[in-house]
Amino acid sequence: MSEGPFLVVGLGNPGPSYAGNRHNVGAMALDELAARAGIRLSPGKGARSRALSGEGRLAGRRVVLARPTTYMNESGGPVRGLLDYHRIPETDLIVLHDELDIPFASVRLKRGGGEGGHNGLRSISRSLGTKDYLRVRIGIGRPPGRQDPADFVLKDFSATERKELDLLLAEAVDATEELLTRGLEGAQNLVHART
After folding, report:
1. What is the CATH number of the domain that holds 103?
2. How far apart are CA 90 and CA 11, in angstroms?
3. Mean pLDDT across the chain
4. Is 119 assigned to a binding site?
5. Residue 84 located in a structural domain
6. Residue 71 annotated in ligand binding
7. Which of 77, 126, 127, 179 has the most CB atoms lying inside 10 A of its own CB?
8. What radius of gyration, in Å, describes the C-alpha atoms of the chain?
């Protein structure tokens, strides 16, 4: 396990109209992480100008927490800029994102793999030239019936889901801390047994 610092990024779309969307659950979890760690996110300059970010400690590790202020499909540029600025290798990048292929209220951890049609992950992989980064996959479930997944992710959580949303965000934050503390395999053993 690296000594860090780690870049922890929460994906979402900017602006109040997207704030409650399923697609923004990564950004929501990042905000919870920042609150837990007492890290203030603020606009950066230069290469960091397209993200809100802050530095501190989380689970005993040095971290840079960041939320791109671009649209989801342009997340790669800000992530690349932050990695370069802080001299963090791609292997120490952790991306928190929504995941259609995991049931709602479940969290899974992995390194690398495909993007599953996720435009934020696709943009990051393209900008980095690799898919070999850590992911905290926050389950939002599949759309009901024949609803288009693209429409589903851009809708707010249902009233029923909102009742469990705080627990889901807490689980994602806990999983991120376990990842920093135990490394991928140790964290997977713990987190995957819980949800």
Report:
1. 3.40.50.1470
2. 16
3. 93
4. yes
5. yes
6. yes
7. 179
8. 15
Question: Which listed residue (23, 86, 97, 118) is catalytic?
Answer: 23
Does 75 map to a domain?
yes
Place of tokens 């690398």: 112
**114, part of any domain:** yes
Give how many domains the chain has, as a whole number.
1
Residue 18 marked in a binding site:
yes
Give the tokens for residue 166.
């705080």
Q: Is the pLDDT of residue 47 over 80?
A: no
Which amino acid type is present at position 108?
R
**Residue 1 counted as domain residue:** no
For the question of residue 118 being annotated catalytic, the response is: no
- Cα atoms in the Cβ-side hemisphere of radius 13 Å centred on 63: 27
pTM, to two decimals: 0.95
User: Angle at Cα 130 formed by Cα 151 and Cα 45, nearest 5°?
Assistant: 75
Q: Is 174 helix (H, G, I), strand (E, B) or coil?
A: helix
Structural domain harbouring 41: 6-194
DSSP 19-82: TTBGGGHHHHHHHHHHHHHTPPPEE--GGGTTEEEEEEEETTEEEEEEEE-S-GGGTHHHHHHH
Residue 2: pLDDT band with limits 50, 70, 90: confident
What are the angstrom distances between the C-alpha of 117 and each of 42, 100, 126, 148? Answer: 30, 10, 13, 13
Label residue 185 by pLDDT band (50, 70, 90): very high
Per-residue pLDDT reduced to its tens digit, 118-151: 999 999 999 999 999 999 999 999 988 888 998 9
